[in-house]
Amino acid sequence: MPFCKDFLWGGATAANQIEGGWQEGGKGPSEADMLSAGTHTSPRQITPDTEPGLTYPNRTASDFYHHYKEDIALMGEMGFKAYRMSIAWSRIFPTGEETEPNPAGLQFYDDVFDELKAHGIEPIVTLSHYEMPLHLVNKYNGWASREVIALFERYARTVIAHFKGKVRYYLTFNEINCGTLPLGNYMSLGIRNKGTRDFLHQVDDVQVRYQALHHQLVASARTVLAGHKLDPEAKIGNMIAMMPVYPLTCNPKDMLEFQQNWRQFNWYCADVQCRGAYPYYAQSFWEKNGIHLEITDEDRETLRRGTVDFFSLSYYQTNCVTVDPNAAQASGNLLGGAKNPYLESSQWGWQVDPDGLRYTLNEIESRYDLPIIIVENGLGARDALEADGSIHDPYRIDYLQRHIRAMKQAVEEDGVDLFGYTMWGCIDLVSASTGEMAKRYGFIYVDCDDQGHGSFKRYKKDSFDWYRKVIETNGEEL
Ligand code: BG6
Hints:
Bound molecules: 6-O-phosphono-beta-D-glucopyranose
Strand content: 5-15%
Strand order of the largest sheet: 5-4-3-2-1-15-14-8-6
Shape: globular
Largest sheet: 9 strands, parallel
Oligomer: single chain
Mean pLDDT: 97
């Protein structure tokens, strides 16, 4: 079977990486506004306050806040059926603790959704994409505190009730399994442990982090339950960063590493969100790591009942695992691993693996039997803006073509139930890991540099027309 006729082709972004306007319309500061610019080799800094001499790229980002009409028109021109975007929690509740929402924040997203509707584009809305009001970081150490569950629920309820009829698809937490990594402390869980400054080497307390992740899983389940009541038409999914690994060799010990790795990173949260309970292997993991979770009976009941309607994932690259401590290493999205001799790497060292996407989709399908949507996939690369305003990006077309072909095989040949594909960063935006603009993903170039300087003018890259054709032919012409 080819892609279904209403397959959701489109692109994806996140509020903190694209909007800018960090203090406009009554928005409160978010944790992302306190992340300085970094590079591939020098890490971003997590600062408690604004520090002179540092650049904070998420504050201006791609200025979607002022360009949304033009940007959505360009998406419409490409024939987008869907646009995955996120709502900035601190636009709706500036500190996270107000009892009434900020009307200007709601109005901004009303305007965005109306514009999308005018172009026949379905919004897919992430409720929390690597940001929370800064006040909650300062007061509660983010998700480390159970109190944040209720604050998030108020925000989620407000949004779902307000946008009823305008938004049909929601994702609760972006890449929720990022919380299984020390890197997830600040970005994903809003935890800033004493002494933390370097984004790549944060002070980690595994007990605090897993308890915080538990709170997020409960909040996600509560959102599903409340969302279904508030808007029976709404479909609410999870979002997992799928980072598959292969055993580097056929040494059985490498095979055990591989199994362990998949469980700890790819399945730990997904099992809870799709099956309604922690998996059996969680217990031994907690014991080995001295983790004692506070899980109430009510939590268990919420998790049991609040399972998701569909599975969404990001997919960029794969790595290998091995017990050999001398194996060559590769980097990757959130996590590195052993280098795979069969794969090439991107300019940022991520190994490119289209077959891994087919493999991954089949693994998800057989484990959960839920409808699946790919909500992130793409290539971060340096682009050159030519004097005539053109941008030639055959490398991006090649990457996307090979991944779409693999996903097509998963659907047509293997029977995976996939209902959409929104490539990451359809309009150039700030990189989450490095804070650079130079790491570009888009079909649309934004004239802005790593310091936030530029005209913010939009230009179409060669991949723009290529993707338009892909959508027009429902993936037949790649
Ligand atoms: C995903 C995130 O992990 O990868 C996005 O959900 C992020 O927010 C994307 O931008 C690409 O990573 P990076 O670091 O290249 O921006």
